[in-house]
Amino acid sequence: MSEINYDGIRSAWEDETSSEALQNLADLRLSKMVAYLSKIRLELASTNADDILQSDLLTQEALNIEFMLKDLLDYRRNKILKAALSNRKPTGDMTLAEEDFYKDTQRALDSHAKFVSESLSGNVQQLKPRDRKGTTTKKKSADSLDEDVEDIEYIIVRFLKPIKEPFMGLDEKTHGPFEKEDVAKIPAANVRIWLHDGTATPIVPEDGVIPDE
Q1: Assuming Cys at both sites, which of 156, 169, 182, 194 could form a disulfide with 200, CB separation 3.0 to 4.6 Å?
Q2: Which domains does the chain have, with CATH numbers?
């Protein structure tokens, strides 16, 4: 198998998120994706602090890869769950961890089906209620709210279709409107649906210009 690069990861992510069927993903291929992300992180760590341009480019590439890998694996998890709930095995090849997840889920569903059957037959076993520890809910302070904003994940995208109306981002800033081919830095949670429907695509700017929004 050839080495994985940024475009290879994006291609795998696009294939997974654009299809209802589980795509093939071997452990070796996933490990190469993870290895490429580690390579970018190492390059970033070894970049001279004065080389701001290179640092920004590597940072954005790492963020994009993190987003795509997490989204890809989340999509796969949901497809595996859907297959288990339908009492069928996913058609695509799974990693070993995904195989274990599918089997564990199937066993849990079988156990629940047995519980339902026993309940309907009047043969359900009485279980002792488990102790529940009290939980305390505290209001978030202004400082913690500021920390939440700082922790927001951003992604740089190029718009393939125009967005005519401005919108409020997760960072409480107004973004847009955007024309076709506009490049912007937006909270990942806000742009996720556009990445999936082809309205936008994640990029690493070749000219090194990192937009403010």
Answers
A1: 194
A2: 6-121 (1.20.58.1030), 142-202 (3.40.5.50)
